[in-house]
Structure formats: C-alpha cells, structure tokens
Specification:
The protein is 14% helix and 41% strand. By secondary structure, the protein is mainly beta. The strands form 6 sheets. Strands 12, 15, 17, 18, 19, 21, 23 and 24 form an 8-stranded antiparallel β-sheet that branches. A hairpin with a 3-residue loop joins strand 17 and strand 18. Bound molecules: zinc ion.
C-alpha cells in the first residue's frame, strides 16, 4: 500500500460519505440511499432496479454474499433476485441486505440499498408413485446421476456470466392445463421427500415445445431424472429447462429465438405420465416460473437517493 492509498483509506473511513476524486483531488459527495425494506418469499423472484448510481463506475449489485448477474446501463442497474426454496430451512438470518458496489476513486464501496425480509410461503404437499428405480438408485444409476450433475453444474456456472440475450418478456411454453405447480412438497412412493422445482403442463401426446425466450442452448441430451432435456441460457442469470421430451430438435450452442421449437413433449426420465416439466432458474435457484412471468412485468423494487430535504 503506498502513501496515497493509505491517506485515501483514512479519508474514506473518517469522512464516511466523502471520497477523493483521484483526477481532480477534490472531494466527491457520495450518494446516500434510503434503505428500502421489502418482503420476499422462498422460491419467488423479485425484480430490483437502481436508478442513476451517479458516481463511480463498474457497478455491481450484491445481495447477501452473492453478486447478482445484472444488466448495467449508464444510469441503471437491473437484476432479478431469487430466494432459494429452502432458504428458511438453511439460514437463521431472515434479512438479506443488498448493496450497490461501485468503483470510486480506485476504491470499491458498498451502498446499502435494500433489506429483503424472507417470510415463509405455504406450498402444497403431494404424494407421487414412480418406478422404484427412480427412487432407490442403483450404484450405476447413482454414478450416472453424479456425472450428469457435474455437467449441469458447469451450465449453471456459465449462465451467471452470460449477458442479457433477450429483448421481450418471457412466455409460458404451453397454454395447456397446469398439472403440477411449483413448490409442492413431493413424497415419492411414501419414501423420498422432495419438492417440485418447476411447473408441469399437460401434454398427453407429443406436441411442439417452444423456447420461452431468446437464448443459447446450454444443454441438450438425455438425463437420468429429467429424460430428454433442453436447457436454454437467456443471460442475466436466467435459464429455462424443458424436460421429459420425446424428441430434441436443438444442440448445445444453438441460438434460439422466443418460439423456436426445441423439441417434442414426451414421457422420458422420472415421469409418471406424458407432460412437460418447465423449469425456470434465476440467479442459481429454481424458482416459480409463473410468478416470474408476472414479476418481469413489474416496475421492480427501486432504490432511491436520500435527499437532504427529506424528513427523517
Ligand atoms: Zn415436473
């Protein structure tokens, strides 16, 4: 650490809301945000927007200890934040703070903008019968499953760095009856306790399945549980997944548009009847796709500056 950065670090600590512009050596007034309090639910998505960060550059949005995959324009940061379905079972702290992280005068500074309060959501519980081999995995099947998991985990990792590839709102892949809702706690053969990480659409006979939005095919192939499956990476930390297909029309690396037919519905993998399982993954969590379709149209949770004239 040279002398200038020691002085700068001292000034940052002592001034709190002032820093030094290294080009002009003049103090720069830092923006002050009002911390917006908001309720969020496990398995649901919240759209976050921060307008006009004003100072600094290379803005990032950090919630908890996670850097969000976000869309950055000159005067706005936009991101879809998601809460893990099992968040409340795994975390004692029910408040997730969010920060705008900005590069100012060579320093990375955090501005506290949101407190997201995680509250429980009551998902239904159901009992399902499936083939025994899909509950009690043989050593070979377990080996296969673990191998697939490794491949898919890479897909997830890459998706966090994919820039936004879509222009329009996401759409439902089918308009048919929903036969399985997101989030239902599922007990397989009265044994394995699981939960439903997507939305099931009725598709009794093989029907064409369109991509929910523009993106790039991140995986296309046969998986132990999902059967023939296609994963589309849309950027901004969003993936859609189409499972149990009877036929796959695309291959890894293909660019698809909203509406491109990625395959035909079917009954492959761990499936008790022909249907389409549609999964939506946001910031590395499988979330409620139907809720996401609504949330994407919302203005989002907006951070705003604290003005000197504001009453406390
Ligand atoms: Zn399903």
């Amino acid at each position: 650490m040279n002398m200038i950065s020691i002085i700068l670090a001292f000034l940052l600590v002592s001034c709190g809301t002032k820093t030094i512009n290294t080009l002009t050596s003049k103090p720069v007034a830092l923006p002050q945000y009002k911390v917006v309090e908001h309720v969020v639910y496990p398995g649901k998505v919240k759209k976050l927007r921060i307008s006009q960060p004003e100072v600094g550059s290379d803005h990032e949005l950090i919630c908890g200890d996670k850097k969000l995959s976000s869309l950055k324009n000159n005067d706005q940061i936009e991101a879809f934040f998601s809460v893990n379905y099992k968040y409340l079972e795994k975390n004692k702290n029910k408040i997730i703070p969010c920060y705008v992280n900005s590069l100012i005068g060579g320093q990375r500074l955090n501005f506290h903008v949101f407190n997201l309060h995680v509250k429980p959501f009551n998902y239904p519980k159901s009992f399902i019968k499936v083939a025994k081999k899909h509950v009690d995995l043989s050593p070979e099947d377990l080996q296969r499953f673990l191998g697939e998991k490794e491949i898919i985990n890479k897909v997830y990792e890459v998706s966090m760095h994919t820039p936004k590839l879509f222009k329009k709102d996401f759409i439902k892949p089918l308009k048919s009856k929903i036969t399985g809702v997101y989030g239902s706690r599922r007990v397989f053969n009265n044994k394995k306790d699981s939960w439903h990480s997507g939305t099931d659409f009725r598709a009794r006979t093989p029907i064409p399945i369109p991509s929910s939005n523009d993106g790039v095919v991140a995986f296309a192939g046969d998986l132990f549980f999902n059967g023939n499956a296609v994963f589309v990476d849309h950027g901004m930390g969003i993936i859609t997944m189409y499972c149990h297909l009877s036929k796959i029309n695309v291959k890894i690396g293909d660019r698809v548009d909203q509406g491109t037919i990625i395959g035909l519905s079917g009954n492959t993998g761990r499936s008790s009847a022909p249907h389409l399982h549609w999964g939506v993954r946001v910031q590395n969590h499988w979330i409620d796709g139907l809720q996401f379709l609504q949330e994407q149209k919302e203005e989002g949770l907006v951070a705003y500056h604290h003005k000197a004239t504001d009453k406390k």
